[in-house]
Specification:
The protein is mainly beta. Among the domains are: 3-33, no CATH class; 43-122, Immunoglobulin-like; 127-207, Immunoglobulin-like. 6% of the residues lie in helices and 45% in strands. It contains four helices and 53 strands. Strand 30 and strand 31 (334-337) form a beta hairpin. Helix 1 packs antiparallel against helix 2 (16-33). The chain is elongated and about 140 Å long.
Length: 701
């Protein structure tokens, strides 16, 4: 009987009591039978809940169904066939593609009930079976056929994750044509192999192509009408590069052209000897600027025999002892000290000179100057300063004839300089120039750079003001305002320079007497000193010398002819480069010492290994390490240029012995050319300076 039937019966009031009793007896049974049942829902779970598989690998999953007598399930894959396959008994097979997938178990008893298990399928990394070639050359296509295998035998594709500009992979071939900038330097590659299954592997390697050393030898001439360039004709010049190949030297010869350019092919990375007509040096640069800077026009033509120059000048201050009279024409590169041709008290001079120099042409800016300098005490020093001068004197000379140069000296236009020197700081720096160092001389002055200051101090520069006796300045000194003559036009740039010459004694083994070896502290700048900004060292000597990683002390012996020098940067100034000059030390006569310069080497690092062929076993050597502060100048690639400002500081090392040393003594072919270069070859890393001129003597008529 169901409950609704009970309700009908209850409506019958006559039978209410009896039927109610019967219904009450049925209530527990009916409640249990369906009047508000609370039976638990079907439950389902899968084990394992997560799995990590390799592509193609199998895994058996088990489903557990609760709260029903029907434990059956259906298996599916959430991602469909791309996610693999699974059998009716729960055996799962991962696809041949790495990824995240899910198997799903659904209850047969209650299809609304399901659960899933996560699978992470990974692919094994492929293995490279090829090795990248390491040989490459500038401008020549480099090719690498890449191969790799997949442990699960799927297709492998290749890509270039990183590499030099221009490198690319097409299919399985890496191609690259090294440019000049990419040659003689290490280039890094990262090739990626990717399998169809999703596995990846990287192959990294470096290639350093053999390159072409390219250079120019184009000189710049600063002239009255502007800068002029002129190439050196290298079409018949010897150009060679020697580099070390194991224990021997390999030399390759280059090709020079009339336009001042040259190339040397087949040069590997690293340092090499370069030899060229104008000189040569040790460098690692791929691009070289071997041009030089000069003052004066390059097209000047020398006079023929029979040409004379008549001189007639008045207005000198009465010529006195220690006066100087200079005749100067920078556009023709002419600078003569006429002092030896004058007598005490002269206020005029006249002469006829047999002229064999370049002919003067006023239209090309060939102006002459006559300048008289006179010594005067200012403060504790005696200075030589320009006092009288002519204005610029244009002259057109006649070849094979006499031409007169005449004029009158007058008080020169005044230039005022507040000269102040921090002598104590220079003295402290000089004390670190070498063991037993002492200041030998100090020269401080103001000079005039003709035509352009862009190249620093170039040519023979007239001094407007200069210390006369070169007495060492070791204390701070303020000389106050000094007015000097400056007869030159605005195209000439005044600059200040200070040079401290330091002497360091060296005694050869077996000698009784030392030889004094010079070192320098030097600066030049177009920024004149002031009371608040006196001249101070802008760079000081290097510190903490080491030889083959050990402290460099006196008498240290090396067992190799290729020792390595290293040092720490100076305490003052940030160097833009270094020059290491090699000197030999020997006994001269019966007991004296002497030194000979061997070679100059340049580096931008704090270390330098002496190349083979320079040192010989059984000798004594020392080195001069010059620290440069010359912004924008790299002596390893452009050794003959200068700049304002410029500073350098020298340190002379202790003596090193090569007694018992072993190593290669072969001299590279290019090095032989460097050692035998002409005396006129330029010297790298030296600023131009006002030079002492030999007095010119002429026949006076």
């Amino acid at each position: 009987m169901e409950m609704k039937d009970c309700n009908k019966l209850l409506r019958n009031r006559a039978k209410r009591r009896a039927i109610m009793a019967a219904c009450l007896m049925l209530v527990p049974v009916l409640w249990v039978a369906g009047c508000g049942s609370s039976r638990a829902p079907v439950g389902i779970s899968v084990t394992p809940g997560t799995s990590a598989l390799t592509v193609g690998q199998t895994q058996t999953f088990t489903a557990t169904v609760t709260n029903t007598s029907n434990s059956g399930v259906t298996w599916t894959i959430q991602e469909g066939s791309a996610g693999g396959s699974i059998s009716s008994n729960g055996l799962y097979t991962a696809p041949m593609k790495a990824g995240s997938y899910h198997v799903v178990a659904t209850s047969v008893a209650d299809p609304s009930k399901s659960t899933s298990a996560a699978i992470r399928a990974t692919a094994p990394a492929p293995a490279f079976t090829s090795t990248a070639p390491t040989v490459a050359s500038e401008g020549v296509t480099y090719s690498y056929a890449v191969t790799a295998t997949d442990p699960v035998n799927t297709e492998v594709t290749y890509s270039l994750k990183s590499g030099p500009t221009g490198a690319a992979i097409s299919g399985a071939t890496l191609s690259w044509t090294p440019t000049h900038a990419q040659s003689r330097t290490s280039n890094s590659f990262d090739v990626v192999a990717t399998t169809a299954a999703g596995g990846t592997a990287d192959q990294t390697f470096t290639v350093t192509p053999i390159g072409i050393v390219r250079g120019t030898a184009i000189d710049t001439y600063l002239t009255a009408t502007g800068s002029v360039t002129k190439p050196e004709d290298l079409s018949n010049a010897y150009i060679g590069v020697s580099f070390q190949n194991g224990s021997s030297w390999t030399t390759v010869q280059g090709v020079g052209l009339a336009d001042g350019t040259f190339t040397v092919s087949g040069v590997p990375t690293g340092s090499y000897w370069l030899a060229i007509a104008s000189g040569g040096y040790w460098t690692s640069a791929s691009d070289l600027d071997l041009g030089q800077d000069f003052v004066g026009r390059p097209d000047a033509v020398n006079a023929s025999n029979g040409t004379s120059l008549g001189l007639s000048f008045a207005g000198l201050n009465a010529f006195a002892t220690d006066d100087e009279v200079d005749i100067y024409n920078p556009n023709l590169g002419q600078d003569f000290d006429w002092s030896e041709n004058l007598n005490i008290g002269d206020t005029t001079f006249a002469s006829v000179w047999n002229w064999t120099g370049p002919l003067s042409i006023s239209g090309k800016g060939d102006n002459w100057f006559v300048i008289q300098s006179h010594p005067a005490a200012v403060g504790p020093a005696v200075w030589r300063m320009a006092v009288t001068a002519t204005p610029a004197l244009p002259l057109d000379q006649k070849d094979a004839d006499e031409t007169d140069l005449t004029g009158r000296l007058d008080t020169a236009t005044s230039l005022t300089v507040h000269m102040a020197v921090k002598g104590s700081q220079f003295a402290a720096a000089a004390a670190n120039a070498g063991s037993g160092s002492s200041i030998h001389a100090t020269t401080v002055g103001v000079y005039s750079q003709p035509f352009s200051a862009t190249k620093g101090s170039v040519g023979e520069n007239e001094n407007l003001l200069e210390t006369k006796d070169q007495t060492p300045i070791t204390q701070d000194a303020d000389y106050g305002d000094i007015a000097v003559g400056n007869p030159f036009p605005d195209s000439f740039t005044p600059y200040v320079a200070a040079r401290y010459e330091v002497h360091v004694p060296f005694t050869a083994t077996g000698a009784n007497a030392a030889v004094q070896v010079p070192a320098e502290l030097y600066l030049s700048s177009t920024q004149m000193p002031t009371k608040d900004a006196p001249l101070t060292p802008q760079i000081t000597p290097v510190q903490n010398l080491r030889l083959n990683s050990a402290a460099f002390v006196q008498g240290l012996a090396t067992k190799t002819l290729n020792p390595t020098l290293s040092w720490d940067a100076p305490a003052t100034g940030t160097p833009t480069g270094y020059r290491v000059s090699v000197y030999s030390l020997t006994v001269t006569g019966t007991s004296g010492s002497s030194f000979q310069p061997v070679l100059d080497l340049f580096t931008n690092d704090h270390t330098l290994t002496i190349p083979s062929g320079i040192l010989a076993a059984g000798g004594e050597y020392f080195f001069q390490i010059r620290a440069f502060l010359a912004p924008g100048v790299d002596f390893t690639s452009a050794p003959y240029h200068g700049v304002f400002p410029w500073s350098h500081a020298d340190l002379l090392t202790p003596v090193m012995s090569t007694a018992g040393a072993t190593g290669s003594v072969a001299v590279a072919e290019a090095l032989q050319h460097v050692v035998n270069r002409p005396a006129s070859a330029p010297v790298a890393g030296n600023p131009a300076r006002a030079v002492s001129r030999t007095p010119v003597r002429v026949n006076r008529n």
